[in-house]
Amino acid sequence: MISTWLLSIFLVPPTIEVDVKLIEGLVVKAGATVVLPAKMTGIPTPNAKWMSDGKEIMSEGHHNIESTGSSSILTIPESVRGDTGEYLLMVSNPAGSKTATRALTKPGPPGSPKLKDWSKSYADLCWIKPTRDGGSPILGYSVEAQKSGSAQWDKINKDNIKICAFRVQGLIEGMEYRFRIRAINKIGESEPRELSETVLAKDILVDRRTEINNNYPLCELVISNAVREDYGKYAISAKNSSGLAQATIIVNVLDVPGPLMVKCVPHICHVILEPPAPPTNLKVLDSTKSSISLGWTKPVSTGGVPLIGYVVEIRVKGTAKKDEGWKRCNVAAQLVVCHFTVSSLEKKLEYEFRVSAQNQVGMSLPCNLEGAVMPREILGETFSVLM
Predict the structure, then answer these.
(1) CA 89, 22, 288, 334 torsion-angle sign
(2) CATH code, 46
(3) By three-state DSSP, how is residue 353 classified?
(4) Which pLDDT score is estimated for 188?
(5) By the 8 A CB rule, do 176 and 148 touch?
(6) Residue 266: predicted pLDDT
(7) Cβ-Cβ contacts under 8 Å for 222 (sequence gap 6 or more)
(8) Count of domains observed in the chain
(9) Does 20 share its domain with 95?
(10) Distances (CA, A) of 346 to 33, 139, 229, 288, 289
(11) Quick one: which of 31, 80, 134, 159 has the fewest CB in 10 Å?
(12) Residue ending a domain, choose from 32, 67, 100
């Protein structure tokens, strides 16, 4: 007797299972180990291939890939900023192929926009990063402004804003503005997040006529000998562990029309103008292998006239005497915000920094950074911009 056996071979296309948290996006600090695990099924056992930026990742050097049976794991020890990006897992067998990735979308809007400072010609805004990056790194931010009485929103910045702070310049004195901010990734711009308050372009009232009495539950602002320039919108906010409350009061100051006469007796009535006090609290905000970001706080005195801006200087440690060898970093334009990034640094050199404030009279004494610093990837640290 002859027996005949029929052998049937079934082919099953591959599938991939990835943790939903990885699909939504993974955020780690520089220096941490990144582990991207995935399960795969199929008959015969699929072959796995990891991709990033259109190139196959090999299991060597900075990357380690373990593909055994029904799993494939990509490990990146001691991650750096250059590892940021999108990673794809492609599996295939004779029955077909499958790719695991996360869909890219526009980012969510920035969070908590706030007004930090303002005058008759500028407004300093700040915000925090969006909670959703849309699956792609945030490339920057854009700021838009709307004048009172207009329905049009105008974009203020030409280039993407790289940090969560921006000074809007060129405001028209007496004009009221609204501001909003968008986050940007490679897919596009987020929905805008609008500042909760309007901004009146006028100088902030800070002089000896102003007094704040804070006696719970009463808080009052007292302005003695009010003048026409004290008009405007005054805002108060109260905050505790349960939340935040805000109120706004509009003040109009009426006066009798007529000529204004100022009489000064020589040698008795005079104003002393001088260079400003130096900036304070100079710190390193962030660092990479080729750049260092600095931040500082405003001087306690402007010398009687408004500040023009700041000058950031650098020198290599040990190459010059105490007050020699300094080179200016911000050459192209006047620096009007309290932060600056110095780039194109050599990673094996130590650098010294100092910052000076400037007004129409002259330059302040410098504020020196305590100790020399070397450009490097900062591991496991977070920083905030000083306004």
Answers:
(1) positive
(2) 2.60.40.10
(3) strand
(4) 85
(5) yes
(6) 40
(7) 210, 211, 212, 213
(8) 4
(9) yes
(10) 26, 25, 51, 11, 8
(11) 159
(12) 100
pLDDT value, residue 353: 94
Q: Is residue 379 part of a domain?
A: no
User: In sequence order, what are the beta bridge partners of 68?
Assistant: 71
Residue 65's DSSP bridge partners are 74
**In one letter, which amino acid is 126?**
C
Domain shared by 119 and 185, yes or no: yes
What are residue 99's DSSP bridge partners? 90
The contacts of residue 264 (CB under 8 Å, 6+ apart) are 270
What are the backbone angles phi and psi of residue 83, rounded to the nearest 5°?
Answer: -85, -5
pLDDT at 101: 60
pLDDT (0 to 100) of residue 174: 80
Residues 94 and 19 in one domain: yes
> 88 and 17 in one domain?
yes
pLDDT at 136: 77
Parent domain of 82: 12-100
The pLDDT assigned to 295 comes to 92
Q: What is the pLDDT of residue 351?
A: 93
182 and 153 share a domain? Answer: yes
Length of the chain: 387
Are residues 42 and 15 in contact, defined by beta-carbon separation less than 8 angstroms?
A: yes
In a domain, residue 314? The reply is: yes
Q: Is residue 304 part of a domain?
A: yes
pTM greater than 0.70 (yes/no): no
Same domain as 115, residue 94? no
Residue 207 pLDDT: 56
Rounded CA-CA distance 83/85 in Å is 6
Residue pair 122/336 in contact by the 8 Å Cβ criterion: yes
Instruction: Please report the pLDDT score of residue 258 as a whole number.
Output: 42
Write down the pLDDT at residue 19.
Answer: 67
The residues of the chain scoring below 50 in pLDDT are 7-8, 257-271, 380-387
Asked if 335 and 312 count as a contact pair (C-beta separation under 8 A), the reply is yes
